[in-house]
Amino acid sequence: MFGYWDPQLERMSAEDLHALQEDRLKAMVRFVYDHSSFYRKRFAEAGVEPGDIKTLEDVTKLPFTRKVDLRDNYPTGLFCLPKNLVVRYHVSSGTTGKPTVVGYTKGDIEAWSDSLARALTSIGLGSNDVIQVGYGYGLFTGGLGLHYGAERIGATVIPMSTGNTERQLELMQDLGSTAIACTPSYFLHIMEVAEKMGINIGKDTQLKVGIFGAEPWSDETRGRIEAGAGIKAYDIYGTSEISGPLFTECHCQNGIHVWSDLFLTEIIDPKTGEQVEDGERGELVFTTLNKWAMPLIRYRIGDITSMTHEVCECGRSHPRIMRLQGRTDDMIIVRGINVFPSQVESVLLRMPAVGPHYQILVDRDGPLDVMTVRVELTESGFSDKIGDLMALSKRISKELKGVLNIVAKIELVEPGTIPRYEGKAKRVIDTRKV
Ligand code: DLL
Prior knowledge:
This protein is an alpha/beta fold. The chain has twelve helices and 21 strands. The protein folds into two domains: 1-329, ANL, N-terminal domain (Rossmann fold); 332-430, ANL, C-terminal domain (GMP Synthetase, Chain A, domain 3), CATH 3.30.300. The protein has helices at 7-10, 14-35, 37-46, 67-72, 106-122, 141-152, 165-174, 184-196, 201-204, 219-229, 341-348, 386-404, and strands spanning 65-66, 88-92, 100-104, 130-133, 156-158, 179-182, 209-213, 232-239, 244-248, 256-257, 263-268, 282-288, 299-305, 307-308, 320-321, 332-334, 337-339, 354-365, 368-377, 409-413, 428-430. Helix 5 (106-122) packs across helix 6 (141-152). The mean pLDDT is 95. The structure holds 5'-O-[hydroxy(phenylacetyl)phosphoryl]adenosine. Residues 92, 135, 141-142, 213-216, 235-240, 244-245, 301, 303, 324, 327 line the site of 5'-O-[hydroxy(phenylacetyl)phosphoryl]adenosine (DLL).
């Protein structure tokens, strides 16, 4: 049931993968040097030339690339091939500054689809499946990315895009969706709407798999989704700069397989830029090994995770990255303490009275930062006894203090009050910057 898309490649020995990456890295470095004035300049500043890259370990001699480089060279300054070879653009809006544009050759799209074909196969999907794609179609990479990957494995695709939740549920039933791909926060909303419509997803649909990502989420949310909808919930990761959604966990649900033939993955200490050991957390860095319209050398995504090179129980030898905590720029600093929304989520969802929707409000009271966590109660957790609510507030505050070492104000709100999102959820409202 859980097969491989490309068994030889997915189970390649560490030595063979190393050799393959080394060859591809050298070719990629030479390619960007020959085709991009941006990289030639960067390499010159770092005092490195393609000939200096002899082994895989030499990657550390290469300079980093960052999102700001894409913005500064808007729209296509980092492209390495002429427009006639570019078959598609995706554009990410970004919350600050100029958007970033990514271009793809026909081959780039094929490699992207292949990456997802391996991933979808690893969670047991195949040509008998009906995959409902509930990520946005258009400039965002989620919809079209999953669409192509799902078609690649011969599955039947329902190109739903986001929104229109009742219709999502109707078609899920009528067309027999066996998998859905959307943000985890949107699926939580779908679950609520299903309940209101009297649909029991576990019993009244054929759904068995969820492919959830594009935003940070926690194992606690996974637990709620799996128990509530009777499906398996898998994590999917990617960013527009490296193509879009690319990698998922396999059925073992123990880390996301990053395909080494396509990307060289490093985890670095964000402060020093030095590589960290397996298992240590740091910032994710990708070098593209088979992406040609807009290759990236040592691109610092800003996401925090750790990596393991241990062969997975499923037999795949490519490294795995662990659940992503969020981008360094999602992190809020409250009274000097780093807080990731995903940490707050983990604490909240340990409590059955608390629903999966929450907001973190950060404001300033004079010189002091004040963090308020707005917590939505579940129907069963909602009580009109003030004593119960106070006890719950106290408990949440204590547990958050235990994890974050911050005293947060807790504001309990009625079920259904916090905004729902069809794409990426907005969890943090930081009014200090305004
Ligand atoms: O979100 C691509 C994507 C589409 C991934 C559909 C998965 C599914 P961007 O809009 O460029 O691309 O945002 C990328 O979202 O750097 C992470 O911070 C965050 N992110 C994506 N997947 C996950 C995940 C798409 N599984 C940014 N867990 C990334 C945590 C995630 N964060």
